[in-house]
Amino acid sequence: MGSREGRKQHRQQHDLIPLAALISKEMKNEKMGKPTVKYGHAAQSKKGEDYFLVKTDCQRVPGNSASTFSVYAIFDGHNGNAAAVYSRESLLSHVLSAIPRGLGRDEWLHALPRALVAGFVKTDKEFQRKGETSGTTATFVIVDRWTVTVACVGDSRCILDVQGGAVSDLTVDHRLEDNVEERERVTASGGEVGRLSIVGGVEIGPLCCWPGGLCLSRSIGDVDVGEFIVPVPYVKQVKLSNAGGRLIIASDGIWDALSSDMAAKSCRGLPAELAARQEALRTRGLKDDTTCIVVDIIPPENPLPPVPPPKKQNKLKALFFWKKARESSSKLSKKLSAMSIVEELFEEGSAMLAERLGDDHSLAQSTSGLFTCAICQVDLAQSEGISVHAGSIFSTSIKPWQGPFLCTDCRNKKDAMEGKRPSGIKVA
């Protein structure tokens, strides 16, 4: 009897699925459920200060195509294009260098918000060293399967239009005119907020920060305005349902003419390329640059209607195609509306680095065994690093000697942004 029971238990043990097989099965299921990502972009240049970045072949693990993610960004420059050009060339690498190596996908996504903060601040710090006075907004979007992470400074916007008709903003506009919290932060840090005063004391124009006259409270660059104009981004991370969604990323030239709802509704049913073209080229009366990127995150079993091959066609045929596309999209929207749930994973807009870089010091150690600056990633001896929490009333850590740590240069940058000391950068 006992022997028979033992054989039964032995068979049950052999019936168990090995862990490796379970993981392999899970990976296959994830691969089957991976969305298709399609994009389109268009631009109309008036001043030559808008720049964009599209990179669809980034990899979390070099050489592993299963770890591919996409990056889409718009940089709207002002007072010249130097800051926009530098940000387009440098911001992505600065963000990725702030993420520890060897992380799994979930850990990598969890580390992204803090890395985006570090990357934005490092980009600003490195550009300001050049002594050029231009500045730029930055709206930076990372799409990894169904997860979308957005970071922004300035007033270039990213909206999400999900199947079923819900439209939501994934960014916050940092315009002094509209953002009371930012006005209070700027004045508390040593800036002055007001309108341009002309002869007779008459005030005109939008609320601006003085000195400099910038109407934004956050940007990259703008060394001549004051360090209280900070590069610390608002960051939001969401996970889409398997109904997918559409991202519309655009410079303020478009948002000056359209609300988020109007922009989303006006191009529903159009493929991404046509949608971007319609948004960017519709505002011909404006004097500002207009740049638009449309990103469709498409369920694998419900692809959007394909764009027809280029050929000569009359306006009636083109209108017929657009109508068919809209009708198809409308039917799909109704079918999937019940599944259109967006899960918020992270949202934070504080300008205080002590809050944004956190108090988890386990990620602050480099592979060499030394500690690294949380912003510029230089190695620090234990006696050199200054905790981001040291002397900060905003600290979430009860032990201000714990990390993450900053080098002396980045600590000075932090203090200047918070109005604790004047900026050490001078413009000739």
TrEMBL record:
This is protein-serine/threonine phosphatase. Transmembrane segments: none annotated. It catalyses: O-phospho-L-seryl-[protein] + H2O = L-seryl-[protein] + phosphate; O-phospho-L-threonyl-[protein] + H2O = L-threonyl-[protein] + phosphate. Its EC number is 3.1.3.16. Its cofactor is Mn(2+); Mg(2+). GO terms for molecular function: metal ion binding; protein serine/threonine phosphatase activity. It comes from Carnegiea gigantea. Belongs to the PP2C family. Keywords: Hydrolase, Magnesium, Manganese, Metal-binding, Protein phosphatase. It is an enzyme of class 3 (hydrolase). Pfam families: PP2C.
